[in-house]
Recover the amino acids of this structure.
């Protein structure tokens, strides 16, 4: 029985999968985080937070772990923070280009966790970065530099193999794991709404109207002012939200359901931005894990040669590991 | 099978890849168990980046007031009063958290420099020790000390009391409507220990 379990485990997590898909995830996720580092106002806070009073400083546990060698209550000053920040930017570009990919990814991940952990050590806390940082950790342990990377040119012997069809036994588990992490995240959101905090009253329609009105009055929104005045539409939206979050995990078992859940999920995050001004670019970037890039390229190639066949969209005749 | 990099020479399909697969199996289990644990215990930032996701999760009802933001008024020793803005405390990010911290206190008075209110009754206990190191309330409850000191330094007056008012709006099934006037949701007397 143990052998059967291990066989099942190995067949699920370590089935050959396209290296291109993993490389695309690396580029999109790392690229998004670099843009956020450089341009999103959150990181402009470093100078302001470095000047906050010591009484407000209470490091979160992961920050204590990351800085353990500097002392249990270590508080970095601004020059230290800036060194970490620019190290993150430099190693981010290296990871993006695929130069010593896993090493640069590891340092990039550590620097980002350091910066955000520091910002969260003053009582403030948000849920925006966690999925992306978990994805960076997973990518660090994966062969994501096997394609679309300078490592491939530097360390490999020349070859004319097609990177689109190339597979590897270690290229599938990172994407599958992150998909399950996302499913667990949505299950958490569902449980908080329906059991821990809201209960069935959450589905009264007024709840989401309240949040749209609150966020619109507080920080403005593109559509919240208009949308929140339509009770029936908002009520429908609440039911769709809860059903989506509670059942998303089913699409990981029946893969064809991703054609419904993934666009719906991405649209969901766009909608909460325009209606609540709740911007989650990190989540939207990590949605690349649901895009089988190599399958789309292969389907495009076949379409050019053989014409379009809708069965490819349902997973027919797609190489193992891409379903 | 495609090209191989020297860095990944061990990633072949033979027995030499087994330790790597075992390590990855361990990593997969840690990630899944970590996220499930965060969901079950509702850990917040304690084991971040594993965390629970309670955004927009509380239920709300018709005719409920909408606390879009709060207004904090400081009353001084000389009897004067001033609306405190984020410019007065020097940081935009914490104004609303500061207001909600004061509203959430059980008592109507706060001693500057005293024990953090949420662990006062648990001093000396294991729970109190855990909260001291893992709860962000330890930081949040110090906002009152820090911002009071900042205000007093900038305005050169001694704060004796805070009055916090909410936002004058309520939610209906047709959207929000104005609900003047603003309500006073908290009055917090500031006390000081004899050493201050």
């Amino acid at each position: 029985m143990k052998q059967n379990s291990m066989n099942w485990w190995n067949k699920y997590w370590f089935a050959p999968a396209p290296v291109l898909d993993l490389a695309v995830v690396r580029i999109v996720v790392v690229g998004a985080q670099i843009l956020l580092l450089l341009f999103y106002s959150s990181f402009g806070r470093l100078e302001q937070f470095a000047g906050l009073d010591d009484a407000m400083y209470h490091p979160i546990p992961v920050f204590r772990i990351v800085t353990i060698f500097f002392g249990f209550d270590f508080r970095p000053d601004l020059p230290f923070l800036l060194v970490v920040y620019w190290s993150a930017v430099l190693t981010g570009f290296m990871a993006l280009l695929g130069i010593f990919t896993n090493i640069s990814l590891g340092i990039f991940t550590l620097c980002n966790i350091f910066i955000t952990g520091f910002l969260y050590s003053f009582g403030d806390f948000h849920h925006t970065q966690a999925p992306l940082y978990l994805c960076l950790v997973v990518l660090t342990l994966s062969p994501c530099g096997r394609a679309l990377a300078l490592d491939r040119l530097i360390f490999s012997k020349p070859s004319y193999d097609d990177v689109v069809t190339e597979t590897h036994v270690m290229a599938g588990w990172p994407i599958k794991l992150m998909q399950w992490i996302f499913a667990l995240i949505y299950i958490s959101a569902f449980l908080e709404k329906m059991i821990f905090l809201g209960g069935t009253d959450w589905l009264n329609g007024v709840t989401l109207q309240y949040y749209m009105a609150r966020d619109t009055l507080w920080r403005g929104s593109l559509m919240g002012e208009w949308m929140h005045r339509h009770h029936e539409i908002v009520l429908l939206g609440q039911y769709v939200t809860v059903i989506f979050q509670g059942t998303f995990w089913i699409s990981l078992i029946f893969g064809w359901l991703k054609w419904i859940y993934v666009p719906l999920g991405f649209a969901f995050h766009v909608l909460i931005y325009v209606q609540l001004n709740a911007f989650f670019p990190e989540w939207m970037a990590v949605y690349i894990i649901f895009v089988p890039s190599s399958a789309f390229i292969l389907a495009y190639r076949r379409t050019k040669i053989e014409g379009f066949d809708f069965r490819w969209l349902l997973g027919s005749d797609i190489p193992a590991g891409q379903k | 099978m495609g090209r191989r990099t020297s860095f990944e020479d061990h990633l072949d399909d033979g027995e030499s890849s087994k330790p790597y697969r075992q390590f990855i199996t361990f990593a997969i289990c840690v990630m899944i168990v970590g996220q499930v644990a965060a969901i079950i215990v509702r850990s917040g930032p304690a084991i971040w980046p594993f965390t629970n996701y309670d955004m927009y999760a509380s239920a709300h009802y018709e005719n409920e007031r909408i606390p879009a933001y709060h207004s904090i008024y400081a009353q001084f020793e000389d009897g004067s009063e001033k609306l405190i803005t984020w410019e007065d405390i020097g940081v935009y990010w914490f104004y609303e958290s500061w207001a909600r911290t004061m509203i959430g206190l059980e008592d109507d008075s706060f001693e500057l420099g005293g024990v953090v209110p949420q662990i006062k009754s648990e001093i000396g206990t294991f729970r109190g020790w855990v909260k001291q190191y893992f709860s962000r309330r330890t930081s949040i409850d110090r906002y009152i000390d820090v911002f009071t000191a900042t205000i007093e330094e900038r305005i050169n007056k001694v704060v004796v009391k805070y009055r916090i008012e909410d936002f004058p709006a309520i939610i209906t099934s047709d959207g929000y409507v104005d609900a003047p006037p603003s309500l006073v949701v908290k009055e917090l007397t500031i006390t000081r220990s004899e050493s201050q």
In short: Strands of chain A lie at 17-18, 167-168. The mean pLDDT of chain A is 89. The longest helix of chain A spans residues 173-196. The longest strand of chain A covers residues 17-18.
